Fold this protein.
Amino acid sequence: METRVEQQRSRPGFRPFRHDGIAFGCDYNPEQWDPEVWSEDVRLMREAGVDLVAINIFGWSQVNPRKGDFEFGALDTVIGLLHDAGIRVNLGTATASPPPWLTARHPEILPVADDGTTRFPGGRQAWCPSSPVFRRYALELVEQVARRYGDHPAVALWHVSNELGCHNAHCHCAESTASFRRWLERRYGSVAELNRAWGTSFWSQRYDEWTEILTPLRTLSTRNPSQVLDFHRFSSDEMLDYYRAEAEVIRRHSEVAITTNFMVTAHIRTQDYFGWTPEVDLVANDHYLDHRLDDPTAELAFAADLTRGLAGGAPWLLMESSTGAVNWQPHNLAKAPGEMTRNAVQHLARGADGICFFQWRASAQGSEKFHSALLPHAGTDSGVWREVVALGGLLDRVGELAGTRVAADTALLFSWDAWWAFDADIRPSNSVSYLDQVHALHSALRAAGVTADVVHPADDLSKYRLVVVPGLYAVTDAAADALDAYVTAGGTVLVTCYSGIVDEHDRVRLGGYPGAYRDLVGARAEEFAPVLPGAALTLESGAAAGRWSERIRVTTAEVVDRFADGPSAGGPAITRNRRGAGTAWYLATLLGEESLLRLVERIADEAGVTRAEGASAEVEVVRRMSATHAYRFVINHGDIDLELPATGEELVTGASVAGRLAVPAGAVRIVREEAVA
């Protein structure tokens, strides 16, 4: 089976991104500042060690101020200043948000929400992904930009649009509706087949003509979940098709790598990036700490591992992150001293070959004026600036890491399809969500010292000792069969509750839960028995649980633990099944943090998984590997100094390490060790 990276590199027109060492970059918006500031900005960029700058991201109204007029003088000047300073350019196509003249001339390009109302200009991304009018104007702009700068020596990377689908992924206008119908016709071939896939016999929803089908607009009751699922898929495909259109124009004029910034994060789920990665020359991601979550740092680690999984294990680029507070959360918390560095090194440890920030200079006006930046409102006489300069020096010193790969013998399966289907309008318990299980299992692996690749259910699993399947509600027959084959061949798997329940059409797999995985785990649940939030569940071992239980009987599995109380009292809660040469575990509840950690440690040890010594919920230990060296990252998020066994050269301080590595509270250390076969 061809890997994701092999698919990417074998694509006609693939161009690798080349950079010397680890990139240190930022977004730069010179149009927000007087030209007198530009030279000072470039001087300070050099002082900080910045060597990759994204520009022209939101430049449409500057370079194309009116229909048919293109003015590149200012952009020429900025690119020239950066090039003369030895700073490489990540050049945006400027199409992220249309200028007022375009929406005034063509209001039909504006997106329509699911309540049928239009969304207007004044923010960003006020355009419909299916609009041929918008695409015509946007590609005209891309043509002008690519023709002018396609062979400019400063351009190291092309940046298509910006955060595609962040705000406008789902449009319900007439153009989108027509495009959705065409997508459905290609997928199903006939209305009869669509009726079967969507189960339209329910509530008299049977269709007779394609023209009767709408996007899933807001309804008086709950909507057809299969229709909603397909609309998610269509919307991701539609935005990907737009990306392809811009990339095709660029390739006519340039041999430089092309990408766009993904949003692998907990609060945006509009794009199935597994379908996107074969189309980009470099996987790039934007990530910001989300303080609406219980553990933002743990979610950062998960997002980085998923981004690496999207890249097929290859190095990737952190396109945007923040030095401190963002501007879009209810409570925009500043980072503590050293936290920015720890976050950057987390991404580096988990496979990034470049660390970039939004943005260079903090804006004085606009919606993002209180978003942090490399150069804050307070200027260079600030703690943020001093930490930025120190981070630039660190990234320069660890340039030898570029191109190395993260060592992992565990996989965690993840699917946007499962996420979309799991978190539908109607489900057994609204206090249980897909990311609840995904984040909990990933956090337990991290605390146990297990580095996991986050991969697609259809990816090759043969190299892993352990595969974790958290809440994979929707799964195809082929993916379920592949997991069974992996276990039968000797692998170990942990499947958690609410997995395997439906097929790719959101049709329940009859015969008992966990549906597609019943034979694999050797157990059959007759009924879900969730409990109310706050109601405690206890297992006979004393393990703490909550929110979910199932009424199970084992077929071929052994019972490892039982429910001591709750609606499934006395029934199996954790089972273990021998399947061929391998083992399949099933977890029928949501364990508390400590109880889940103990279970994960037991399963990992039985599977022969490598666990990093000294790792915990507050201490990350991850390795990147080259042919000759291992690089051990230790990130101490806690407030207690620690020591770990290590021998080698420590790259942060330059010290030699002989047996014991000291890692102060809040510090990071990277030890170059001899590679172990």
About this structure: DSSP finds 17 helices and 27 strands in the chain.
